[in-house]
């Protein structure tokens, strides 16, 4: 900050104090640091491998955001550690808005499952915006002789512990969704965790596992090729991507809801004016026709909420998943 800028800020701060007004609320948006942001490339750290839905979503918004902000945005993949590796990179970076995280809902489910989770998601990070939502689909092999959730539950109950379900990993939203369904339906299904959806799908198609919750982005091509059957979605309302597939709630389990989000986070302590600017440009990116077409083709519902709304989602989800994990006695190492 130049000397004149410092003097100007001090004068404004003094005037605000005399008026009994908080300095941050009056001046932050006008400071040269916030006004000139960004002055160098921005890094978005994705906690998953390249090519997955989280990675593709981050890359989809990075191009229009780069154009509107007038600065390069680089997407970097840091998979592993149930998201901790990527979050650590952001937490250990300066709180200046140049290193951001792009996690999934796993960022709020993992703290409930790992006693050694090293962050407080409400004080170490701040939300920028939810970028998108991807519904899950409860799917089975097309050769399985059932067509509804009720029939599937009856089949599993008829042979307790004879059936297996897969997930893309311990602590994933698909893992938690099935554990919730098992609890509500009173069924026994053995869990087989995989390192990603791809190997789990192969075992589903070969008959080694019998069911899995898949992202719609992954499930839609398999549905079109008639390789799997969709039994239900775990959202409160039917998904616009697969409107003919009923919800779990309407099939006898009222209140059952999981709506996985994917969003942009910054380190806590970042200038609120920078967070606000990023939020504004996320919304601009989501309004871009290129992003809208990409999201539609992938079965992604667009996000774009406010900073406070996203932070409220984070707080509420942390509380919800902590309660679910304790009720179902779920832990991962």
TrEMBL record:
A matching Pfam family: TctC
Keyword ATP-binding: no
The keyword Magnesium appears for this protein: no
Keywords on record: Receptor, Signal
Highest taxon of source: Bacteria
Gene3D superfamilies associated with the record: Bordetella uptake gene, domain 1 (3.40.190.150), Periplasmic binding protein-like II (3.40.190.10)
InterPro entries according to UniProt: BUG (IPR005064), Bug_dom1 (IPR042100)
Family, per entry: Belongs to the UPF0065 (bug) family.
Protein name per Swiss-Prot or TrEMBL: Tripartite-type tricarboxylate transporter receptor subunit TctC
